[in-house]
Specification:
The protein has 278 residues and is an alpha/beta fold. Helix content is 33%, strand content 26%.
Length: 278
């Protein structure tokens, strides 16, 4: 089983300024839970117990969130507020949290490479981008689905979804051959192509399972789009050497890195919470 999940969380979250001037974007709440907690819960459901976070300056709130707050817990002890901490207490008890900084913003590929010290280079690991909030109310979480797929194919896997053609320039895009329903053998990847030059409308979202040879490939990957080390470039190399799959997951994804997606997610969770209480 895959036990380690990496959370790249070093970005500045400039699209949410001034809120993110002093607060990490990963700590922005959807209702009463921060985005990164939703991601950790998804990883834990999939069997991960080691949560490794790539942090940056001003991200101390993430570390504090996944730690015991003795003063707070003393103040609410015995009150009905205690039940609000049940979920986070379970994560703190059952998971190990580790952190390392990404000192310079050099792209997702670089951030993942920084995680080598935390997840090691001998076993596959998961990657979750917390501002891609995924839910599957009718079944298993996205990462659980991907772990099961890894157990069959034993290769790197990226979560993909279809978007309108005029939106592909915002994403890494794949092309490939469908080998099973919703499973694609990738033959090409392009980072944020022009809308009229895209190989498809199947785009990568913030869920990955990576095999450890990806670290050496990243080391040999030259900076690409925007001068950053792109994980899509490394994965394309990996696909040429072996096999990388794209998985059209079951569930719904919210782009909480954008204001529209953040509001959409908030409304979705609020409305579904009301339904659960009926």
């Amino acid at each position: 089983m895959i036990k380690r999940c990496l959370f790249p969380a070093a970005g500045y979250g400039t699209r949410f300024l001034p809120a993110t001037k002093a607060m990490p974007k990963e700590m922005l709440p959807i209702l009463t839970k921060p985005l990164i907690q939703y991601g950790v819960e998804e990883a834990y459901e999939a069997g991960c117990t080691i949560m490794a976070t790539i942090t940056g300056r001003g991200k101390r709130a993430i570390t504090d969130h996944f730690d015991i707050s003795y003063e707070l817990e003393h103040q609410i002890q015995g009150s009905d507020k205690e039940e609000l901490l049940v979920g986070i207490r379970a994560l703190i008890k059952n998971c190990t949290f580790t952190y390392t900084p990404q000192n310079e913003m050099k792209g997702l590929g670089d951030a993942i490479h920084k995680g080598k010290a935390l997840v090691g280079d001998t076993a596959p690991f998961a990657v979750i981008l917390a501002d891609d909030l995924c839910v599957n109310p009718d079944g298993e979480g996205v990462m659980t689905q991907m772990v099961k797929l890894y157990e069959k194919y034993k290769c790197s896997i990226v979560a993909i979804m279809e978007v309108p053609h005029d939106q592909v320039h915002k994403y890494g895009v794949i092309s490939g051959r469908e080998i099973e329903k919703d499973i694609f053998l990738i033959d090409d990847m392009v980072e944020k192509p022009d809308n009229d030059k895209t190989p498809s409308n199947l785009v990568i979202i913030g869920r990955y399972i990576l095999t450890p040879d990806i670290f050496k490939i990243i080391e040999d990957t030259k900076p690409g789009k925007n001068g950053e080390i792109q994980i899509t470039d490394a994965l394309l190399t990996q696909s040429k050497k072996g096999m990388v799959l794209g998985y059209k997951f079951q569930g719904k994804r919210f782009d909480c890195g954008s204001l529209d997606g953040f509001v959409e997610a908030t409304n979705y969770f609020y409305n579904n919470l009301k339904e659960l209480k009926k």
